[in-house]
Amino acid sequence: MASSSFLQMMMLIVFVTAFGTTKLGVVVDAQPSPPIARGLSLTFYNSNCPNLETIVRNRLRTVFNNDIAQAAGLLRLHFHDCFVQGCDGSVLLDGSASNPSEKSAPPNLSLKAEAFRIINDLRARVQNACGRIVSCSDITALAARDAVFLSGGPDYKIPLGRRDGLTFATRNATLRNLPPPTSNTSALIDSLATLNLTTIDLVALSGGHTIGISSSCVSFGRRLYPTRDPTMDQTFFRNLRLTCPANNTVNTTVLDIRTPNVFDNKYYVDLMNRQGLFTSDQDLYTDSRTRPIVTSYAINQSLFFERFVFSMIKMGQLSVLTGSQGEIRANCSARNPTTTSSYLSSVADDNEEQQFVEGESATF
């Protein structure tokens, strides 16, 4: 019986790899790059800041040589920016006690403080070389791309020309668009569908968890206490209980137990071995809609890289500001002063409340 199940799985793997589809109609083959949003371009800064990408990459190479953990922090920063109010650098803005910014919303409390400092440092270096012509949102997108490449992942061109937003999102808007790590696949599919991102985009972008660490045991403690989540591997469970002797322990652990500092496809291998850390991770392999996609990426790293690049470029163009919209910030954490007012407002709030695991987001 065991050999029969293994043979069936291998036949599925061969079929998915060869034809890029399953009987469920889920296409997983590589596709051409997504359309470039109006106002963005692959050559946007070629004439007025031709050394932009070299400046960013060379600096990040030094940063990562000293601390590779910063790569995951910069990648998450781009995710958290784009999924809330679009890729406008709003997550970078500071708020106040009376007007809290996106940074203070629970999903963003685990964003690395050093990631924000790195973005501002890159902005200063680029501004020194080219003047104030490159947006903080573009620098954030470039930093995420280089975080992927410099930790072993694919290199790729991204459209540039984003402008920085004048407002940040409210707590409720942030909660609504960054689902918690306790989310199942259905909740994640529904959440991303509001952004015109598909199930395949969900699985590909979740591969960002191939690098990085959790914020604390709270983000996955429900899978350990009071009893083991049955979808979790027994040995993996025992090791996590050593790291987290209680479900509110502040200890952290890696997201990919095989190659935690290398951007590769081992995250999907983890899922196939029931060693995904969050519910939002492991359920991608449990759910019949996403399991074949996980399998295809686990056995074909090139396919994962192609799909990740496609989905990153697509995500990186969510609700971008271009042309005369927004501004180019002189300081990534603050809106440029104006003659009329320097008050930074947030978008209109609503009364929606949502339970959230403190300091963590689901997929990104």
Low-confidence stretches: 1-30, 340-356
| Strands, count | 0
Q: Main sheet?
A: none
Through-space gap between termini: 38 Å
Q: What is the number of helices?
A: 13
Shape: globular
Which strand-content bin applies to the residues?
under 5%
Helix content: 40-55%
- The gyration radius over C-alpha positions equals 20 Å
The pLDDT mean sits at 88
What class would the helix/strand composition place it in? Answer: mainly alpha
Structural notes for this entry:
The protein has 364 residues and is mainly alpha-helical. It has 13 helices and no strands. The chain starts with a helix and ends in a 49-residue tail after the last helix. Keywords: Calcium, Disulfide bond, Glycoprotein, Heme, Hydrogen peroxide, Iron, Metal-binding, Oxidoreductase, Peroxidase, Secreted, Signal.
